[in-house]
Design goal:
Strand content: 15-25%
Radius of gyration: 28 Å
CATH architecture of the largest domain: 3-Layer(aba) Sandwich
Number of strands: 24
Shape: globular
Strand order of the largest sheet: 3-2-4-5-7-6-12
CATH class of the largest domain: Alpha Beta
CATH superfamily of the largest domain: Thiamin diphosphate (ThDP)-binding fold, Pyr/PP domains
CATH topology of the largest domain: Rossmann fold
Helix content: 25-40%
Structural class: alpha/beta
Length: 636
């Protein structure tokens, strides 16, 4: 039995932050959960899917975040509790529905978890999702610890039902992927039966009335936040400095003050309910000090809102000195950490403190440079995307017209780097490659003579590319679309999608065939195996010569990390040491310097290439690209 489904109130358990959110939803009696995978949020629905059948709840991976919110909202409209989770980019996708859902309101508890990615550790942007709460007039909670992640999620469902509004929870990478202790609560005993009241349509009109009702709801929420135990003050009655923080910043500030021995000089206002602001609670503590430092990730959301709050109440407050991102005391980009927070507080309080001896820092840096090899971001051993980009590179060189390859986020985004031989030239949102290709594909009339290609993953195709493909057919745009079908949402954890034949709960599902959809839209469609480099190169070159309409080339080969779990390598690969002539090859070590599959290694002693059998997945592509035919592949 998974600890997520264990009915052991009071038991203390080690959870990942995302698992704690999932457990909180379970304790709250959630019945419908939907999401599109995206780091750092993926483990929430992934965890719930593992216990869904046991607990009698429904969990799905939706095709995109807007659909996921709509699925969860349907449960709410029928009186059940629904949860949806996404990364920060996903809230952009869902926002169209969200800006209507706030006006109609919800019935059963509806919770939307958004996991932001400060420093863009696995994202194309560093977006702070919190302004959506203010724009939509929706309650926003920000847990600071794993325990709070569970408790806030559980409470968010009650709050949602009390207000008749969806409730937002904002996590960040260092909470979602951290581990900590959380105490289990009671499991739900009774679940309601769904029923939709057809006598009361759920619509946002008349907008003036529903907008006014929304404002009344958020005012009620503000009153509830005044008494929330998730907001607290720690420190002296009259501190020299007041630090206002939220999320993981709470732990960083506590650590910094403890390390500097400055706990009697600074007070901490920790906000767990960050929108709407709990005004009376803030007024009580803002009066304690005239210097206020804001510690938060990523944007100055609390900082700006509290400055606005203070401006409205200037007559009741003394003149304040605000410190934070705007003042330059904290960086306005990237993650924060204990060292950054320590430096900011140290600067304000003039504390003499050295986190670690300078000599230690220097020695550590030297040790890293000596013993830790530098690692360029690259594809896994046997990744079909490496073979695809090799073929693209060769086909474009054969064509000779300086073709443009447009892309977006996914494992294949490494196509902009040496791993993909620098072939991909744009990377924005999911599906943006084909959207841009629509525009580039219309520019021949103005004199553009470069062929246009776009690359898209299989999961991204279902998520965001289909509307752009329809647009291309309708408006007769001219480009070649490469769909890299590796049979998984690989970058976020190998979650299934409509093309894999199974659901989030492990049930068999009908395959929504990519080539069938493309053919139905009138595209010229071919399917190739990217591991056959010559055949793929020729196919790309041939399709580039067709300068009329949309062409789709599906490059289908299962992700190596998925394949090796259930079958042997495709080939036994070895290097003929007598035939390999190393540096004298004339290709300047094409295999290990350019192709750079991790399964290939360079032996500086012998001056020859070799196969790392512990890493090689046996795709055999390296044998096809060796100009001396020194790499041999044998069918297993």
């Amino acid at each position: 039995m998974s600890i997520l489904s264990k009915d052991s109130p009071g038991k203390k358990t080690l959870f990942m932050g995302n698992e704690a959110i999932a457990r909180g939803a379970i304790e709250a009696g959630v019945q419908v959960c939907a999401a599109y995978p995206g780091n750092p949020s993926s483990e929430i629905i992934g965890s719930l899917s593992q216990v869904a059948e046991e607990l009698g709840i429904y969990v799905e991976w939706s095709v995109n975040e807007k659909v996921a919110v709509e699925v969860a909202a349907a449960a709410s409209f029928a009186g059940l509790r629904g949860l949806t989770a996404m990364k920060q980019n996903g809230l952009n996708v869902a926002s169209d529905f969200l800006f209507n859902l706030n006006l109609t309101g919800s019935k059963g508890g509806l919770v939307i978890v958004v996991c932001d990615d400060p420093s863009a550790l696995s994202s194309t942007n560093e977006e702070d999702s919190r302004p959506y709460a203010k724009m939509c007039d929706l309650p926003l909670l920000e847990p600071a610890t794993v325990q709070e992640a569970k408790e806030m999620t559980r409470w968010a469902f009650d709050l949602s039902e009390e207000l008749g509004l969806p409730c937002l929870i904002r996590s960040v990478t260092r909470l979602s992927h951290a581990r900590g202790i959380a105490e289990l609560g009671n499991m739900p005993k009774n679940r309601p039966n769904p029923r939709f009241d057809t006598s009361r349509p759920i619509i946002p009109q008349p907008v003036m009335l529903t907008h006014k009702a929304l404002h009344d709801k958020i005012k009620k929420c503000q009153d509830r936040f005044e008494e929330s135990a998730f907001n607290l003050y720690r420190g002296p009655e009259r501190p020299e400095l007041l630090v206002v923080t939220c999320g993981p910043g709470w732990m960083y500030v506590r650590e910094a003050l403890a390390n500097m021995g400055a706990e009697n000089r600074a007070g901490i206002v920790k906000l767990g309910t960050t929108w709407p602001l709990p005004g009376s609670f803030l007024m009580e503590h803002l009066k304690k000090a005239n210097r206020i430092l804001f510690v938060e990730e990523v944007d100055p959301f609390l900082e700006n809102n509290i400055k606005e709050f203070c401006a409205q109440r200037a007559a009741e407050l003394e003149v304040k000195t605000f410190l934070g991102k705007a003042s330059g005391n904290l960086p306005d980009v990237g993650e924060i950490n204990p060292d950054i927070v320590t430096g900011a507080i140290q600067q304000v309080l003039k504390v003499s403190y050295e986190p670690r001896p300078l000599q230690y820092t220097q020695e550590a840096a030297e040790a890293v440079s000596l013993f830790a090899p530098s690692r360029e971001l690259g594809f896994c051993a046997g990744c079909p995307h490496r073979a695809t980009y090799w073929s693209v590179k060769n086909a474009l060189a054969m064509d000779g017209r300086d073709g443009i390859l447009l892309g977006d986020i996914g494992c294949y985004a490494l196509g902009v780097r040496p791993a993909g031989f620098g072939q991909m030239k744009t990377c924005h949102a999911m599906g943006s490659g084909i959207g841009l290709a629509n525009g580039f594909g219309q520019l021949e009339r103005f004199g553009l003579n470069q062929p246009v290609l776009t690359v898209c993953g299989d999961s991204t195709f279902y998520h965001a590319a289909i509307p752009a493909l329809v647009n291309a057919r309708y408006n007769r745009s001219n480009f070649l679309m490469l769909i890299l079908d590796n049979s998984a949402t690989a970058m976020t954890g190998f979650q299934p999608h409509p093309g894999t034949g199974r659901t989030a709960m492990g049930a068999e599902a009908p395959v929504v065939e990519i080539e069938g959809l493309c053919k139905a839209l009138g595209a010229q469609v071919e399917v190739k195996n990217p591991f056959d480099v010559q055949d793929t190169t020729e196919a790309i070159y041939k399709l580039l010569q067709d300068r009329e309409g949309i062409k789709v080339l599906i490059l289908r080969q299962e992700c190596a990390l998925v394949r090796v779990k259930r079958q042997k390598a495709l080939y036994k690969v070895r290097v003929n040491q007598e035939q390999c002539i190393g540096q004298e090859c004339g290709c300047n070590r094409r295999c290990t310097r350019i192709f750079k599959c991790p399964g290939l290694a360079w032996d500086p002693v012998t001056g020859k290439a070799q196969i790392d059998e512990a890493i090689c997945t046996g795709c055999g592509v390296c044998a096809d690209i060796c100009p001396q035919s020194a790499i041999l592949k044998e069918t297993i």
